[in-house]
Inverse folding.
């Protein structure tokens, strides 16, 4: 599959009793597809995969594949800080309906660059699907350096197909973009950096705000990766306050609150995540109301 454009890191809606809200999940999936996103990422960080049981993760993955029914490509989040356990899961998982996996740098263990390389080498060899690397040192505790990313891209062409870069290290991201092999995609892991990274040569984003505003944000991304920067900026600029709002009290607390304000899902989270503060929710309401009507979609 191709990961150019906008992928949405889908939330997992919960009912007030903390069970998965499949009715809201179906509605949200249809909303993403109607908004024109290029693909959907299931069971990532924003999807609260860490708080779901193994059985729930399987049920959510199968439900999404069945409901989407091929209307857009799907990516499945598959991560662990235990390499052997992850590889066993990759060999046993039913990937019908999915085109790639998204896998984060091992967390908590804080492996060396050689350890990160060997982890993803094992993942690439075990996975029946292409692999999108995910670098987010603010969550994992370890940064995957450009040399490690490029080493994996060069050794596994067509299998390691891109990286979701959420390090915020502009020099590092630029190095990957400038030295990457042909066909390897660099995509933003930060909504607010999607446009500037596209100007450097990045080719898309895996978005959080896209849950709430798939139409306007995916159009912004398309314009940005096509280097129509004036058109992209005209969409991006009014949305910047909301990019900030949804991360003030953590992700996915913020995006779930925004979705709730818009009447799309509930705002329930599983501990240790908690709802946003009243002040943050008020900011979201104000900044959403200030968006031009044509962007509130």
């Amino acid at each position: 599959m191709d990961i150019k454009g906008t992928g949405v890191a889908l939330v997992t809606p919960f009912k007030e009793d903390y069970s998965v809200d499949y009715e809201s999940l179906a509605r949200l999936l249809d909303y993403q597809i109607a908004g024109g996103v290029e693909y959907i990422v299931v069971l990532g960080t924003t999807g609260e995969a860490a708080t779901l049981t193994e059985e729930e993760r399987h049920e959510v993955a199968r439900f999404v594949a069945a409901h989407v029914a091929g209307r857009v490509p799907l990516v499945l989040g598959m991560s662990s800080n235990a390499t052997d356990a992850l590889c066993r899961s990759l060999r046993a998982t039913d990937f019908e309906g999915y085109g790639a996996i998204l896998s984060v740098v091992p967390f908590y263990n804080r492996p060396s660059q050689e350890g990160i390389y060997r982890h993803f080498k094992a993942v690439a060899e075990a996975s029946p699907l292409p692999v999108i690397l995910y670098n987010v040192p603010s969550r994992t505790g370890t940064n995957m350096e450009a040399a490690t990313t490029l080493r994996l891209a060069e050794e596994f062409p067509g299998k390691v197909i891109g990286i979701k870069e959420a390090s915020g290290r502009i020099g590092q991201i630029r190095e990957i973009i400038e030295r990457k092999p042909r066909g390897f995609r660099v995509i933003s892991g930060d909504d607010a950096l999607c446009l500037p990274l596209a100007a450097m040569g990045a080719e898309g984003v895996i978005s959080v705000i896209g849950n709430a505003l798939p139409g306007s944000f995916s159009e912004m991304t398309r314009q940005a990766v096509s280097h129509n920067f004036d058109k992209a900026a005209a969409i991006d600029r009014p949305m910047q306050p909301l990019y900030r709002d949804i991360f003030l009290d953590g992700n996915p607390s913020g995006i779930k609150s925004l979705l709730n304000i818009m009447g799309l899902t509930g705002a329930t989270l599983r501990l240790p995540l908690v709802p946003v503060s009243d002040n943050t929710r008020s900011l979201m309401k104000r900044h959403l109301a200030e968006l031009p009507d044509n962007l509130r979609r």
